Amino acid sequence: MNGCDEVATAPAGPPQPLEWKFSQVFGERTAGEEVQEVDIISAIEFDKTGDHLATGDRGGRVVLFERTDTKDHGASRRDLERMDYPINRHPEFRYKTEFQSHEPEFDYLKSLEIEEKINKIRWCQTANGAQFLLSTNDKTIKFWKVQEKKLKKISEMNLDPPKAVGNGSMACSSNSNSPIPCLANGGSPDRSYNYLDNDFSFPPGGLPSLRLPVVTSQETNLVARCRRVYAHAHDYHINSISNNSDGETFISADDLRINLWNLEISNQSFNIVDVKPANMEDLTEVITSAEFHPTHCNMLAYSSSKGSIRLIDLRQSALCDSHAKLFEEPEPTGSRSFFTEIIASISDIKFAKDGRYILSRDYMTLKLWDINMDSGPVATFQVHEYLRPKLCDLYENDSIFDKFECCLSGDGLRVATGSYSNLFRVFGCSPGSTEATTLEASKNPMRRHVQTPSRPSRSLSSITRVVRRGAETSGVDANGNAFDFTTKLLHLAWHPTENSIACAAANSLYMYYA
Amino acid sequence: MAMIDEPLYPIAVLIDELKNEDIQLRLNSIRKLSTIARALGEERTRKELIPFLSENNDDDDEVLLAMAEELGVFIPYVGGVEYANVLLPPLETLCIVEETCVRDKAVESLCRVGAQMREQDLVEFFIPMLKRLAAGEWFTARVSSCGLFHIAYPSAPEALKTELRTIYSQLCQDDMPMVRRSAATNLGKFAATIEGPHLKVDIMPMFNDLTQDDQDSVRLLAVEGCAALGKLLEPQDCVAHILPVIVSFSQDKSWRVRYMVANQLYELCEAVGPEPTRSDLVPAYVRLLRDNEAEVRIAAAGKVTKFCRILNSELAIQNILPCVKELSTDSSQHVRSALASVIMGMAPILGKDATIEQLLPIFLSLLKDEFPDVRLNIISKLDQVNQVIGIDLLSQSLLPAIVELAEDRHWRVRLAIIEYIPLLASQLGVGFFDDKLGALCMQWLKDKVYSIRDAAANNVKRLAEEFGPEWALQHIVPQVLDMINNPHYLYRMTILQAISLLAPVMGAEITCSNLLPVVINASKDRVPNIKFNVAKVLQSLIPIVDQSVVEKTIRPCLVELSEDPDVDVRFFAAQALQSSDQLTMMSS
User: Which Pfam family, just one, is annotated for this protein (chain A) (predicted)?
Assistant: First the structure.
């Protein structure tokens, strides 16, 4: 909210381009250090408040970070401080905890290895001071609860604490001449309980010699517990999960189907979209990403490998194979090539916070769609136009199939996405904005800064506001280095309320603010 | 270290285990909480055990659930109702935990405790707790609070009552859909405790808010509220306030809401009364029967009979029957299946003429449906039609349907029809059965699927029960016994099983003369599995037949089997011999 307020008071007209500064890095690589495959980050997600950040990696781990700069203050105090020092503060995070979310598995029926790699993480509603999140690999979604637990230390007991920690039986009750055998940790043989039947009468005042255990130590530690496992519902690889605004359901999407789950019920889900053709040879299009509308519980959007976005209305019918709206860019005439269809494939879609706009990322561009206008995107941003001549090489080394994510700022004024050489780009998407910044995921993000004051080549129609800009011409960066296709910045997330971006470069998590 | 007398040892263990590392042991202790309380005495339970439990709120959910349950019946252990309020703090903390089932149980227990509390205690302790929960920081507390108002409200003084109503109305507008859902779920219960005037002034606006909620899941629950509130309101108010809501719900944009209306329709009709039902709900129901969404039609089709029962036959024939006709050829097999399972019930409502003229063609088309579930659903309710139109009319189309189902590719379908055979037999009578179905019953004994053979053997027994041993001896036994010579041992085994099932029904005489020789013969089988099954069957025959037969025929056979080279055969033979010894001993 705070972020929005600031914007609301800003004068009309495009906001000034942001000056991005390095904030933090986690898991920075030292010179010459080999990156372990399992450490490569594969998912990043802020929670709704922006006070928590989660990353998932190829090793199936989920790492949680918490914001430190606001942590100790109440909300009102936070607001006061904000008014006093509006500029000095930016989100800072610290490592909170991590846990192993998924393990590698083998599906014996299908002779299929299931990687532990975390494909997506989604935060759920915080309750009672505990954090909840969903994490998924290719097949299985898990619901986690992360909570501070008191470390129990029992100081007073009725009986001697077990002398031996183990399973051996031992003798307790040191004053007794005929010790009753009991299991370690206090479990006693059944017969001892016999006279705990209701017939056994206790003296009316109770037995004074008995006392309750006393817990002394009040230290706490964070415990992550898997509360539910939603499995066996996907034949293909899960590419997205998304929570509904009703707080009780979520969807999971694989290449051909989208399923609807209730968070509390893990043994059944409902198939709501199925694009699998009767004959797999007729398959021309797969689902690449899906997301619920942020406020309308009945709407969800999914993108396809053909570059279209479909909006479906869960109210219309139980099976939503027919879409309510289809967003597609009219095919440019004449310029079809072998790669046209491949690069049209949408790798990620995100709703803006207000739910009116959808941001999509395909291989070469970011597109912003207004859900009230299905004739074409309202804005198109070229991410790395200089690669166009190299599509053949990119196809050869499979890079063309890289799935870049995209994100919107909380105020909806800017969008960001990743590229190669650990670069990412931020574009202003408010009307009239020419902001197009290139940053490098390093401690010096502006190192490769090539802020070509690019003039947007506007389309004639001012209504559609199609913007093409930031097109850099050379395949070589400002420093004259050739671009590196192996270091790609696929995953990034924008803080929900402030101008702060978290992005993953291999195993390192870089955070920037403006 | 404490010193404990030996007799107290188990209880001491139990108490210590409240904090054990092992969750099973903690659970065990919590389940015996009443024992611990009795051992501590009422005063120490209040002063020590309850505060101890209140702090124990970060345990595993299973333990918390058990604790919530135990505390609901804990009043006797804290010293009776005058001390009931001490139970509120631990239950209050349980009302806030994240796990829904724990919270629900805690609310349930709080209601139990609250229902027994004295009025002044409710005002002094329960209502403040309720207000704390309703104003809770986390939505979990607010969700729980909704379920407690109906306990607190009746005891509250006037000013507090006003406040409680205000709080509830805030909960109905909470930011969190979870809270609004809980408010919608509990609105009926709360409304039932509210005085007439306030019901209209305060509750109806809340209800109206909920019926217009953006979240489908909230509106869904408000549908149930229609029925609950409708019963509380005066008839004219109900028509004025509830009926329009039902009608608009029946045309809601969301199919899930319409589905709820279809499912709840009967209760809704009851709430608004017969006259408005006829004028307003019949059109609404007809719309639901013709809904675009198959799920809604399924729900609506399943209520056809229940709904028609409220109407007179004329209205039903005029309005509902045309829809039923359409539904019988619906594109969704599940709709047809739902219709098939209830349509039989319409016959008595429509009367014989309308049934034969209008309903019978629908029955018959459903009996020929390509989807086996539809056919099965018709057949399972056959007794109801039979009463109205008689078997002669039906049998022509019935038999082909049965035969087709009996030979269905899916064994589960075959299994289902076998289970209806005894019902069919009783409806059709001996004569019809002999001609047509007898052969089928024998055929199932030779099915490729074990479950079918198993069910078929059972079916043979049930037929014998239905038509009596005399009939069975003529029509079943010879055919069954014939099959003992089947070359495949698995089929021979089925026959042995059928024999053991038939024997008690047939009685001692027939068993000795017809069944026993076959079994004895089978003891010479070359397959050990048959032989040890013979031993098992013989064991089951021992109590049925005469002692002399046991001595003369069964025991020698078993003795022989007990010397068989196969270890399993020896085992079961020995077991049978042993049980025969025991029987002899008991009878002597």
Answer: WD40
> Cα distance from A171 to chain B (closest Cα, Å)?
12
CA atoms within 13 A on the CB side of B57: 20
Task: Choose between B209 and B588: higher pLDDT.
Answer: B209
Whether residue A206 and residue B4 make contact (CB cut-off 8 A), yes or no, is no
Give the mean model confidence (pLDDT) for residues B55-59. 80
CA angle B234/B235/B239 to nearest 5° reads 115
- Whether residue A74 lies within 8 A of chain B, CB to CB, comes out as no
Cα–Cα distance, B297 to B301 (Å, whole number): 6
Query: Stretch A323-339: mean pLDDT, rounded?
Result: 81
Q: Angle formed by the axes of helices B372-380 and B382-389, to 10°?
A: 60
Token representation of residue B343: 């349509």
Residue with tokens 């490729």: B448
Cβ distance of A245 and B3 shorter than 8 Å: no
**Straight-line distance from the first to the last Cα atom of chain B, in angstroms, rounded to the nearest whole number:** 62
Query: Mean pLDDT throughout A203-216?
Result: 73
Phi-psi region of B79 (alpha: psi -120 to 50; beta: other; left: phi over 0): left
- On whether the CB atoms of residues B327 and B297 are closer than 8 A, the answer is yes
CB contacts, 8 Å: A298 with chain B: 216, 253-254
In A, minimum Cα distance to B1 occurs at A160
* Alpha helices by DSSP H, B250-371: 255-272, 274-276, 282-289, 294-301, 304-310, 313-315, 321-327, 333-343, 346-354, 360-367
Q: How high is the pLDDT of residue A160?
A: 61
Find the closest chain B residue to A130 by CA distance: B98
CB contact under 8 A, A159 and B8: no
Chain B residues whose beta carbon lies within 8 Å of the beta carbon of residue A204: 41
Q: Which of B3, B11, B16, B17 to mutate to test the interface with A (most CBs of A within 10 A)?
A: B16
* CA triple B111-B117-B119, angle to 5 deg: 115
pTM above 0.90, yes or no: no
What CA–CA distance (Å, rounded) separates B222 from B206? 10
Determine how β-strand A346-351 pairs with β-strand A325-327.
unpaired
- Half-sphere exposure (Cβ direction) of A267: Cα atoms closer than 13 Å: 0
DSSP labels, B312-329: -HHHIIIIIHHHHHHHTT
- What's residue B118's pLDDT? 93
List chain B residues with CB under 8 Å of A150: 58
Q: Given pLDDT bands bounded at 50, 70 and 90, which one contains residue B581?
A: confident
ipTM of the complex: 0.79
Is A296 close to B45, i.e. CB distance below 8 A?
A: no
**SS3 for B483?**
helix
Choose the most confident range, by mean pLDDT, from A446-455, B378-387, B507-516.
B507-516
- The position carrying tokens 């470069």 is A505
CA distance B393 to B2: 85
- For residue A192, the Cα-to-chain-centroid distance in whole angstroms is 53
Mean pLDDT over each residue of chain A, to the nearest integer: 80
pLDDT for res B278: 85
Is residue A476 very low, low, confident or very high in pLDDT (cuts 50, 70, 90)? very low
Distance CA B222, CA B208 (A): 9
